[in-house]
Amino acid sequence: MRVMTRGRMYRYVGPVELKELVRAGGEGRSMRSSADFDEWAAALTPDELAEPFTFVVDAGGVLRLAPRRSEHVVCAGGEGVLSAGEMSFREESGRWAVEEVSNQSTGYCPDVISWPAVAEALDRIRIARPSGFTHEVVFRRCRSCRERNIVREEDFVCVFCGEDLPLEWNVSEPDR
User: Fold this and answer.
1) Alpha helix locations (H) across 70-159?
2) Is residue 29 domain-shared with residue 112, that is, in the same domain?
3) Tens-binned pLDDT, residue by residue, of the chain (176 aa)
4) Range of 117's domain?
5) CA distance linking residue 22 with residue 72, whole number of Å
6) How far apart are CA 164 and CA 43, in angstroms?
7) Are 122 and 91 a contacting pair, CB within 8 Å?
8) Buried b / exposed e across 140-154, counting CB within 10 Å, b at 16+?
9) Is position 134 within any domain?
10) Residues facing residue 90 across a β-bridge
């Protein structure tokens, strides 16, 4: 088994009330092998499989999956993650593949450079995957008003106060 290259750990930065939803044993389903994934997928209905899933890659490099409307912090069991977002799957010729994958998680706001953690977790369980996020989300924290922002169309301006946003990822910077 390959050893995962260590990426940046992302701590939860979302609303406190969502972190309070975390319960022991309530985290997302861990996918440690292709057998784990096959067993999990076999238990889902076609309608469930048609929806994207919430995912995190935990500190050990393990992919965890939960229904789409699950909170990322709950899927992660309240712990830090190497990546987080949404992922959908398709089956082609008897083999599972990722159809779409994003780093869309406003609770962890992972940088786009978290892709290698996702790729390694998928490779470990032998799920075909794209070469990167199919939809990249750029998160920044405003240094003036401290709000988290999603940067759209490379417009690095805070939507809350109009200040310029940093070009480098900074979401977990401590408050002043």
Assistant:
1) 72-75, 115-124
2) yes
3) 344 456 899 999 999 999 999 998 889 999 999 999 999 999 999 999 999 999 999 999 999 999 988 999 999 999 999 999 999 999 988 899 999 999 999 999 999 999 999 999 999 999 999 999 999 999 999 999 999 999 999 999 999 999 999 999 999 887 65
4) 16-124
5) 10
6) 47
7) no
8) bbbeeeeebbebeee
9) no
10) 97
